Sequence to fold (127 residues):
Amino acid sequence: MNSFGVQVIVLVAFIAIMYFLLIRPQKKKEKTIQNMRNNLQVGDEIITIGGICGKIVKTKDESIVIQVGADKVKFEMMRWSVSAVVSSAKPASAPAEEEPERKKVMPKRLKKASAEEEEENIPEDEK
Fold:
């Protein structure tokens, strides 16, 4: 009876490990992909599962119309065929967020060299 209990515990542990290593991450990934496909908007640039790159011009319940190429050819395709969103259209209602101004960082050598150059450029009357 003792070896049977050990076998059951090992089997349950193996199933739990399989769940946490395989099933759970796959379901999480499927959920994020479904969320991405449900949130497609006009103006989004997408890549399909077939490798076609285009811009969404119209959305419907189960399909989207995309514009492709220099000739601006439009065709309809199913939402499930979208592989990735390359760039998302910004919602009009959200305020535009301004990026903070980035400081220009220079290595120490350049800072010292530029300070010395400035001293050389100052006329001797002002020194």
Notes: The CA atoms of residues 119 and 127 lie 9 Å apart. The helical segments are 2-38, 108-121.
